[in-house]
Design brief:
- The protein is α/β, with parallel strands linked by helices.
- It contains 23 helices and nine strands.
- A nine-stranded mixed β-sheet has the order 4-3-5-2-6-1-7-8-9, sandwiched between helices.
- The chain is rod-shaped, with a radius of gyration of 46 Å.
- The protein starts with a helix and ends with a helix.
- About 0% of the residues have low confidence.
Length: about 600
């Protein structure tokens, strides 16, 4: 069972080292879940003497007023007989103290380091481990003594501050309360009993200790209290006899004081029948056994809490993202990696792994054909327009067989209107590609982490898409212009000629411009323009995909990467500027996760050893 107390000791030390003191915070606390014995008593109740008697050493600061101004987590470790006693502080991990007067001085000095010399209090605990053959395995938390008035140099609020600190420890359901009260004062006025009763009204978690039994007025004794008749707790009261102030001044040995305590209870008639369960040695054994029992019952719950909290911490850390590197090379690498993640997400949208890319096909399959159908060629090919263009094209020399120049002008004026749908297709695909950039940015967690980089990547991607749009527009409109600049001759060779239809080429010029003739020209031009539309309906998507979609997949951030390599460390840092609150939160979560993983490993070790 001793390994259970050692387990809690290790986890408590890890809690303190990693900033978990149990106070209210936005972080989960493991400290509150660990069973501990909180030592509670008023000033001059003999609290320090009880602790020193349990340890068998003088090691606590003494003086008037409030001496204990920080919680002292006292971990006792029993070692082999004949081994030399020593002490270690958590804040001085490689230093062993064999002189316990130096331990006392270090407690005072460490208190002043945290609180200054202002006599203020602090909830940050001091961890002290004592290794001795004269102790039992035990952990106690010595709390500041309850007081009713502030001493000089302390604010009036110190009285309430101390009570609040004590309450924060003893209110925890896993806390065992060691309530120390002097027997030579009325128990009804005991600070320790009063506050213990408030947080533990049934006495289930409270162990009572009576000090100064040997200093009671003549004719009075503490038998009724020790027997639990005047004030009953679930566990029997334990009486102790501490060293007197004269003994302390004479440096009376603690081991000799323990012997005198045993003699007092065994030889005093009123307490003879209770001697077997009196004294500081018995108190230490009772506390050790009780702590072991409580720890054993709480272990499953603590394990469950640790496992659950690890998952929660890992989830939040993953959401916050990794911390940034400190050197320029590391920052450049981090930016490149984030950009690659974004680029990969963007490609997944285009390739159909994520939604969005299918809308581009909709432009080619629906929007472009619909726009081509909406072109009003009939206006270009009205009788008046055909007559006008052909007449103008003939000039002073009327055409002989077919109005070739008229045909060219009519076709060109019709085909040129296809530029509108072609440009619209380019712009529609550009808008979709741009929308996918914003989607990919929002789906890249690391870009949410760094607002500066997010803006730069978004701007760089949109600028690239803009350049691709211009290239695409140029190439796509060239396709239309090509159809204007060279007509497909075979189409016209296959058209029926007037002679074939019985026409007479000797008709007058006036007859040649009659409505029937012009309608045939309009019909031929419309057939040719429809053939061109069908051809462009297939070639425009190819041009758009080649110049925009394909390039977006290949080189969306190429120019950004080139510019990135020219930036100095300062500019790289500006891209990775992060909200200080997020950085602080990540650091705190990482420390807390380290604590819980350490606790989990310790728990697993104990489980295997069983």
């Amino acid at each position: 069972m001793d390994n259970l107390i050692s387990l809690v000791n290790k986890i408590q030390r890890a809690c303190t080292a990693l900033g978990d003191h149990g106070e209210a915070s936005a972080l989960p606390t493991l400290w509150d879940a660990l069973p501990s014995i909180a030592v509670v008593g008023g000033q001059s109740s003999g609290k320090s003497s009880v602790l020193e008697s349990i340890v068998g050493k003088d090691f606590l600061p003494r003086g008037s007023g409030i001496v204990t101004r920080r919680p002292l987590v006292l971990q006792l470790h029993k070692i082999d007989e004949g081994s030399r006693e020593y002490a270690e502080f958590l804040h001085l991990p490689r230093k062993r103290f064999t002189d316990f007067a130096a331990v006392r001085k270090e407690i005072s000095d460490e208190t002043d380091r945290e609180t200054g010399r202002s006599k203020m209090i602090s909830s940050v605990p001091i961890h002290l481990s004592i290794y001795s053959p004269n102790v039992v395995n035990l952990t106690l938390v010595d709390l500041p003594g309850l007081t009713k008035v502030a001493v000089e140099g302390q604010p009036d609020s110190i009285v309430q501050d101390i009570e609040n600190m004590v309450r924060s420890y003893i209110e925890k359901p896993n806390s065992i309360i060691l309530a120390i009260s002097p027997a030579n004062q009325d128990l009804a006025t005991s600070d320790a009993i009063k506050i213990s009763r408030e947080v533990d009204p049934t006495g289930e978690r409270t162990l009572g200790v009576l000090t100064k039994i040997d200093l009671m007025d003549k004719g009075t004794d503490a038998v009724e209290m020790l027997e639990g008749k005047s004030y009953r707790l679930k566990f029997p009261w334990v009486g102790v006899v501490n060293r007197s102030q004269a003994d302390i001044n004479k440096n009376v040995d603690m081991i000799a004081a323990r012997r005198r305590e045993r003699e007092y209870f065994s030889t005093t008639p009123e307490y003879k029948h209770l001697a077997h369960r009196m004294g500081s040695e018995h108190l230490a054994k009772v506390l050790s056994k009780h702590l072991e029992t409580v720890i054993k019952t709480k272990i499953p719950g603590i394990q469950s809490l640790i496992n659950k909290t690890i998952i929660e911490l890992e989830t939040e850390l993953s959401r916050l993202g990794k911390p940034i590197a400190t050197d320029a090379g590391g920052k450049l690498y981090a930016i490149m990696e984030i950009c690659r993640m974004f680029d990969g997400t963007y490609k997944e949208h285009l390739d159909g792994v994520r939604p969005g890319g299918d809308k581009i096909y909709n432009v080619f399959d629906n929007q472009l054909p619909a726009a081509l159908k909406r072109l009003q060629f009939d206006k270009q090919l009205s009788m008046e327009n055909i007559r006008k263009l052909i007449t103008e094209a003939d000039g002073y020399q009327p055409h002989l067989i077919a109005p070739e120049q008229g045909y060219r002008r009519l076709i060109e004026s019709s085909v040129i209107s296809i530029r509108g749908p072609a440009e619209a297709a380019v712009d529609a695909v550009h808008a979709l590609l741009k929308d996918l950039v914003h989607k990919a940015v929002n789906e890249t967690p690391e870009l949410r982490q760094y607002p500066g980089l997010r803006v730069e990547v978004t701007n760089a991607a949109c600028e690239s898409l803009e350049r691709m749009r211009e290239e695409s527009k140029k190439a796509t409109l060239q396709l239309v212009d090509m159809e204007c600049s060279y007509l497909t001759v075979d189409f016209f060779r296959k058209l029926p000629q007037d002679v074939d239809k019985g026409g007479n080429p000797s008709h007058s010029l006036f007859d040649r411009y009659n409505d029937s003739y012009l309608r045939r020209i309009g019909s031929n031009v419309l057939a040719y323009v429809n053939m061109v539309c069908a051809s462009l309906r297939n070639s425009i998507p190819k041009s758009v995909v080649y110049c925009q979609v394909r390039e977006a997949k290949r080189s969306l951030l190429d120019r950004f990467f080139t510019d990135l390599g020219k930036l100095d460390a300062k500019h790289l840092s500006s891209l990775l500027n992060e909200d200080p609150a997020v950085m602080e939160r990540r650091s705190a979560l990482a420390k807390r996760l380290e604590l819980y993983r350490s606790a989990q490993a310790e728990m697993d070790t104990v489980a295997w050893s069983k």
